[in-house]
Design a protein that fits this description.
InterPro entries: Glyas_Bleomycin-R_OHBP_Dase (IPR029068), Glyas_Fos-R_dOase_dom (IPR004360), VOC_core (IPR037523). By secondary structure, the protein is of the alpha/beta class. It is built from two helices and eight strands. The longest helix has 13 residues, at about 75-85.
Length: about 130
């Protein structure tokens, strides 16, 4: 289980700092810092740093193996985030779906895509123990 005194850190490439900042702030992430070559966000309690790297953008992103996101432990928070993404017209890579239907690890999920083709997954497991 996660200790609350730790913050996960993830660094990802971005092609444009302005559009990256706009996307993540529209998603509800707080802008923590901005420099000439990166922007740092509070991404649902963790740290995501988007480094300006326009020549390292994945032009044909795939869900697997590389994506990141949030696993909600509360279904209401998952549903609120989904409704917010729809309302704000955030770009979906994969619309909401059920994965592993009928199995213990069944979960609800959807994927967004940021302006630099980084994929973000948001999911909720019906059985909380399957989150890990």
């Amino acid at each position: 289980m996660r200790n609350t005194n730790k913050v996960f850190h993830l660094a990802i490439p971005c092609k444009d700092l302005d559009e990256t900042a706009e996307f993540y702030q529209k998603l509800g992430c707080k802008l923590a810092r901005r420099y000439d070559d990166r922007v740092t966000f509070d991404f649902f309690g963790d740290q995501v740093v988007c480094h300006l790297s326009p020549h390292q953008i994945d032009e044909q992103p795939k869900m697997y193996p590389r994506h990141f996101g949030i696993t909600f432990l509360d279904r209401e928070e998952y549903e609120e985030t989904l409704e917010y993404a729809i309302k704000e017209e955030l770009p979906f890579f994969k619309k909401p779906m059920i994965r592993f239907e009928g199995k213990r690890e069944e979960h609800l999920t959807f994927f967004l895509i940021d302006p630099s083709n980084n994929l973000l997954e948001f999911k909720y497991y019906h059985e909380a123990a399957m989150a890990y």
